[in-house]
Amino acid sequence: MIEFFINRPKFAIVVSIIMTLAGVLTFLNMPVSLYPSVAPPQVQITAFYPGADHNTIRDTVASVLEQEVNGVERMLYIDSKSSNDGSYLCRISFEIGTDPDLAQTLVQNRVNKAMSKLPMEVKQLGVTVAKVSPSMLLSINLFSPKGTYDGLFLSNYMSLNLRDSLARVNGIGELKIIGEKNYSVRVWVDNEIMAGLGINEQDVTAAIASQNTTISAGKIGENPAPQGQVFQYTIKTRGRLKSINDFANIVVRAEEDGSLVRIKDFARVELGAEKYNSMSKLGDMESPLMIAYLAPGANSLQVANDLHAQMEIISQGFPEDIEYEIAYDSTLFIKTSMAEVYDTLFEAVGLVVIISFLFLQNLRATLIPAIAIPVSLVATFVVMQMFGMDINTITMFGLILAIGVVVDAAIVVIENVERIMHEEHLPPKEATSKAMKEVTAPLIASALVLMAVFVPVSLAPGMVGILYQQFGVTIVASTIISTIVALSLTPALCSIMLKPTALPTKGPLGWFNAFINKMMGGYGATVALLSRHLIVTLILFGSLMAYIAYLGSNMPGGFIPEEDKGNFLVDISLPEASTLDRTITEIDKLTNQIKEIPGVQSIVTANGFSMIKGALATNAGMLIITLDDWEQRQTEELSQASIMAQTTQIMQSNREIKSLVMSTPAIPGLGATSGVTMILEDRLGRSTESLGPVYMQLVGELMQRPEIAVAFSTYTANVPQLSLNIDYEKAMLLGLDPGAINTAIGSLFGKRYVNDYTRFGKNYQVNIMSEARYRNDEGDLNSLYVRAADGEMVRFSSFSNFEPTIGADVSARFNLYNATQIIVMPAPGYSSGEAIAAINAVTETLPDGYAHEWTGQTYQEVKTSGGMVTLFLLAVLFTFLFLVAQYESWLTPFAIMLCVPIGLLGSLLFVTLMNGTLNLYVQIGLVLMIGMACRNAILIVEFAKVLREEKGMSIIGAAVEAAKLRMRAVLMTALSFILGVTPLVLASGAGAASRNTMGHAVWGGMVSATFLGCIFVPVFFVLFQIIREKLGSKTEAADVADKARRAEQQKT
Length: 1052
Prior knowledge:
This protein is α+β, with helices and mostly antiparallel strands. The chain is built from 33 helices and 31 strands.
């Protein structure tokens, strides 16, 4: 087949052009993302219990739903939060690879079974089940620069005109408005006037419910009708009230004198907000904040682009003095990072072509690998699409590292053709034909070795398996294609493009050749010396193995390196029971200081919202801080880490607040924040407050560990609260109905939802609540009244009193246990793996009945941490077995495989010198080094084996000759790979941490495998060939000896 392409070069060229065109077309239509889809699918359950505190919701809603949902197929874990604002939120995480639609259906079925056990108020408002993603895609702020419109108008404008339109964008999972103030008809009652009129809350509720309602009145003349009925008329009634004035004029009672008592006589009615417990700001302006969350499996870049385009269209219809700003966009990092990766790819190609020219020293010869590289890389996109892959960081890293592999195959062919042309003076076509007979087997073997390395690791389950698969498919596909190109296009081009030329002996290239020849002479002498002193060689190698074990055992573990993403978050908590006004004032002071930090571009504030709690709280706030472009932040002082450190100092200067400065998770969808996320559980079912002492002790011990910088949680069990003690016996003696008392409490201290008001095509709530002056402190109990059976109005204070107390404001559960989440940030110089080990050590002393679990990104890190050794050993085993089959020997493969530890030595040593960790990128690099180290060794062992077994040379002579013969080709291919990886090592800007980490592992490994491994490989060949021949049959030994005698005779 190879002869076919040599004889018909245009055929080979046409095949390559078709492959390239197919790759280009595929590339243009492939989606782009930061990482492949590896986040566990999540399903969210939401419910609302008006007026209930967190304990009530936990006992009546959470326990009912979670008991039913627990154990649903392919579930990983379940966590929930019940809040004092009446909200309940539960998330169920599923195994990676689970169909999100199936997961939602499974949860919905179980929720339906539990509905009959829920309180009536919860069932009336409904329980929602939806598939979600915790990945924040982008944020949109709406604001009025001149102050023409207030926050209430802007919030509703956003809800009506933005959210409904953007929700139709394909790939949007959820649009959450922080600081949302839906319109609501607010009936603010004056308790004193109402009591004087003898009216209670139930009277007002009944009046609104009966007069703001829809009526189905029927028709006149509807069939069956009398014979001869000609017309039919629909009867229309007033229906729901149309204006605020209509509500103010609702009649509550008709007096005997004919006068009417209306709501406006004792209450103030306005179109206000449904909730007043949060407010977001952009800079100094009140600005509702809408956060777009990605739907599971959706492509973030495509969705973000669609959102930007839709916002441009919507904004054209904005009223004057309404503008929008997308202050946070997670895809900006993806776009910039991938652009940097593309630049790295082109830089690597350029460097490889330069090194090829340096060794080939012929423009014609250099042009051949320059053609082969793009053909092999571009055609790889076709295979990637066949496997359902997209363009992401992992696959692009695979392509960058494949450049050295791709050019390797072409260089081996070209170098051998030129050697034969030079030594045997054959014309290009005949030289190519002879060269291909020598290198075809090594080329195929080298390609199959990489397949043997990545096939077993690609079969690993879960997230790590997906990442290895993406990387492995890219490497293997490009290697196979480059081998095909090397066996078709490359020999075809060699036969028509190469000309016999001598290597320069003068000038820079001549000096380079002289240096290489001198180095090859010294290299051959070193190999010969070590081959004659095998014991010394084995001692040296044993020392290296011991050092490798030392490096590996002392290298800290990790998961994904932290990146400069150009933005970060701050979660803030003020003292418990702080009002929203106080929270806004304090956070404004902090943001004014943070604005002064160089490199900060904008700050979005969400007052009244805690990202860690995932709930509204008046004493909480969240900051989304966006930094200047990476091009403007080239120095260390302007890096994200430095700005985060300065922000932390500002936060710590205010002793009244608790705060956590954090970045978003390395892999979108794996939780809401970076850091190590653990869960402290009470497994004996005690109260939420009982976690307090254990939590405080645990956090205190964690903070004493050097591996941990911060241990943060929003848990608190000392929120100031008031317990209302009601003497029901005394109340009944006063003629009061307990039901009326309970109803009045919720309406007067809280709000009572009555029914709905329709406006702008949407329904808004009608709520009753006391005027603010009757809800300021516990003394206002005297202003609340309940009507007795005889019509008299009785003060609350006559049968009840307030008692100060403390307690929690949120009940969190994890896997059905009362729990609290703790976020741990590793100290500078320590990895997440070391922080996890520290946490495990501290939690061994937890009291009985308490335990800890992991969640989010940490769950995946812990789950996959023990599998690296197994995967690595499997890759080594598969490679060894393949080589056994290739060489039909159990011993010869050891000469190749023992080069692998030398490559690992370089990888581990360089990563250690660069203060790296044994993270996922380093692990992938180590697996790649198995194949790359073996590829170098195969070129030497293959030729040494031929020289010994077919040419009859002595074992040492064959080893030395093969080493010298193939050294130039090995150096050329290895240096091409090393220089191709160098842009990764030197990368900066967005996504640089990942590129650097991968580059360190592979660059160091290839340097070691080339300059140290190539010394040991021929020596190992000598060792194992001696053993093989001594253990082999007499016939085989005699045959080899006979070939050696004939070779000596030919020389003489």
